[in-house]
From TrEMBL, chains A, B:
NCBIfam families: asp_kinases (TIGR00657), PRK09034.1 (NF006540). This is Aspartokinase. It comes from the Bacteria. SUPFAM superfamilies: ACT-like (SSF55021), Carbamate kinase-like (SSF53633). Its EC number is 2.7.2.4.
Length: 452, 452
């Protein structure tokens, strides 16, 4: 018998109807032993996520006004779900009591207090799903992260899993019952509740999958699969049914918003396949993300872009004879607490590409001043408004003609290439272009590789 | 009246017949006020350059045997030139006396002694050319670099010009006579003769051109012009009649052997155009190298390659979050006294490209060990046998379709691209390929841009 850990995102638990879908999916496969849940998300576009309501509630309690109204909204959301699931009135009482008492908790440490409140969304989701499944006659229990041993660093809102958690959580594998586990939070060694950063429920699921050596980590969301490009930019982008961890990571970095690749890291590290699936269409094939993919016909699995970049360009005659030039340049960047993305270079030129948002006018002034003084370039220019486009595909460097197709498509659509970067053994090619050309470039590249 | 500095290379002075060509060229234009000469070069393929004979003579004197025979070969070469130029017998006596007395000089400092001997080739060339022109009734004088003020750093075989030389040499501009100046050497402040590194006569000409503010530096060699690719690789490569300093430099770096770009640096710095011309075909248009070129139709002026490269490839999950990762890697490279060429990178990967000849097994062991210990990469691979191909052209980054043509040509010829590097505002694109594909790639790229 295989062992599966499933995680359901916020839209999968937005309403009683969605809860029922989750229950159906959980019950459809006896291997789904551990189910991780998010807080109820949006039911429709103008709706508010329960987590955001909880944060607003916490802020109101901290600020001193409006808390009552927000509290009522939160309770209304859960009342609706409880009613729709035909759960007994006591379930609501439990939730209302927990919310009120937690709201009266210690408010001395602002971030810690907010964590303690916002984590209630996941806790309530998990409690209600377990109650519903039990009511329907199935052996599911709610498991508390503290009791289970999900031990995190004591960093409110930005907690990291501690290595001992994996050993502590392992016995869940042999639990006599099937488990409903709240995502997004755990406990520091001092007993404080602490929440993960964004993508927190994905992290919880990935940690559990790794701890119990799951055969697969099923990540249920609201899309049928990962697409080869952003559907907001490309009309009907190609569906991608298989990709590797490395490809996922490159795409996530390049602007893909389906998943936080870092959230999945515990599963990747443990080499557990991650299966992206759709709660609203569980029959669809989904996207399987694993160490290697079986289908090698696709040289490229995705195209993504991000437009918030700028380049510091330096030229200096005989730069390549000056040992340490590049290293000293990167030291200046590092001293300014900047991260850089790439450093494409020629014989007498080097560009350092950084996120434009981090390169404020003050930082720019200070960095350029040091570069001028310490490196004495002949030319020093800052180019703003750069977009980086990546095409991603494992082993593309072993396939002839990928660069040709990509540069041909960009040229045919009138996109001027300012920079190109492809490193040895890499699974991506990066193109630097003007921000204004970004969407045109993504469409051109998607069509070149997927509409053939 | 314009002022021109001309320099003639070794093949231009290989025989009396060549000396006469040089004299004719010098006399054809009154603006050619300063003529810099190399030592007599090869008359034919199996011949030996006078400079190599002089070095062999110095080595024999230092080693103690065979000096007589080499001395005779040297004197024979000059006897032939003197006879062919119908110069009086005294010219030969002067040369023979100078060679013998210099041969008996101080041999305590080996490199210094070799410099003092090998510089005689240029000195004799200059003395004989001046004597010939005077005999023919023209007002040319031989100028000694020491008297003229060509002051160099005291580094035998690798001397560098000292800044004061430019002021000291400037009065040559107003000399009452036209000047023949020996290339390749000057004098240290302590009075010692010291020679430039390779390309030394080109350096002397460039320094003189800068010192006297010449309108052009005419560099006479034995080719009609610079070619768009190496004629040993590409059959009938395109002739390039105009290029910029930056383009010349990129091509020279990438493997072009026509000129040493560093030798021309003094002229480039002073913004003096360098005109490459052919002594054997002075009517040909040549190649004008200057700050900017007037012809902007050619996006690419040349294709060159070099095959002595290897890449250190590292991958590490979340590398881009580790501030200072790239800088620490370059520090390790620098500590091993290695220069690197490029560092193409992806999100979790970086490659450092270095000259393979400098990356010996011992250096490799030490560098990889430090990388493993200090950077803990997930993967660390050294790829050897890499060729770097460059296509060069100012402003190519502003022209759409250059990358398309290049990658298309490579793909169509079955060349797999391992790396691509094009930085912002650059005048080149670099392609990393397998060494075995180098010539094929150069032919493909040349044909793509020049046979259209």
């Amino acid at each position: 018998m295989a062992l599966k850990v499933c995680k359901f995102g916020g839209t999968s638990l937005a309403s009683a109807e969605q809860f029922r879908k989750v229950a159906t999916i959980a019950l459809a496969d006896d291997d789904r032993k551990i189910v991780v849940v998010s807080a109820p998300g949006k039911r429709n576009k103008p709706d508010t996520k329960v987590t955001d309501l909880l944060i607003a509630f916490a802020e109101a309690k901290l600020g001193g006004s409006g808390a009552e109204a927000v509290q009522q909204s939160i309770l209304d959301r859960f009342a609706g779900i409880i009613e729709g699931l035909e759960l007994p009135r006591e379930e609501f009482e439990t939730i209302a009591t927990l919310l009120k008492s937690r709201g009266e908790g210690n408010r001395n440490h602002r971030a810690r207090y907010i964590d303690s409140i916002k984590a209630l969304g996941e806790e309530f989701s998990a409690r209600l799903l377990a109650a519903f499944l039990r009511k329907e006659g199935h052996d599911f229990i709610y498991v508390d992260p503290k009791e289970a041993g999900l031990v995190l660093s004591d960093e409110p809102g930005n907690a990291q899993v501690l290595p001992e958690s994996y050993e502590l959580l392992r016995p869940l594998r042999d639990s006599a019952h099937r488990i409903i586990f709240p995502g997004f939070y755990g406990y520091a060694k001092n007993g404080n509740l602490v929440a993960f950063p964004r993508g927190g429920s994905d992290i919880t699921g990935a940690i559990l999958a790794a701890a119990v050596h799951a055969d697969v980590y099923e990540n249920f969301t609201d899309v049928d699969n990962v697409f080869a490009a952003d559907p907001r930019i490309v009309e009907k982008p190609a569906a991608i049914h298989e990709m590797t961890y490395a490809e996922m990571r490159e795409l996530s970095y390049a602007g893909f918003s389906v998943l936080h690749d870092e959230a999945l890291q515990p599963a990747f590290n443990a080499k557990i396949p991650v299966h992206i699936r759709n709660t609203n269409n569980p029959e669809s094939r989904g996207t399987l993300i694993s160490l290697e993919r079986s289908n090698h016909e696709l040289p490229v699995v995705g195209v993504a872009g991000s437009s918030d970049f700028c380049a510091i360009f330096l030229s200096k005659y005989l730069m390549n004879r000056e040992k340490g030039f590049g290293r000293r340049l990167l030291q200046i960047i590092e001293d300014a607490d900047l991260s850089y993305e790439h450093t494409p270079s020629g014989i007498d030129h080097i560009s350092v590409i950084i996120k434009e948002s981090t390169f404020t006018p003050e930082v720019e002034k200070q960095v350029l001043e040091r570069i001028r003084t310490e490196l004495q370039p002949d030319k020093l220019i800052v180019q703003r408004g750069i977009a980086l486009i990546m095409i991603v595909g494992d082993g593309m460097s072993k396939q002839i003609g990928v660069a040709k197709r990509a540069t041909g498509a960009l040229s045919d659509h009138g996109v001027n290439l300012e920079m190109i970067n492809q490193g040895a053994s890499e699974s991506s090619i990066m193109f630097g272009i003007q921000s204004g050309d970004m969407n045109k470039a993504i469409v051109a590249l998607h069509d070149a590789f997927f509409n053939t």
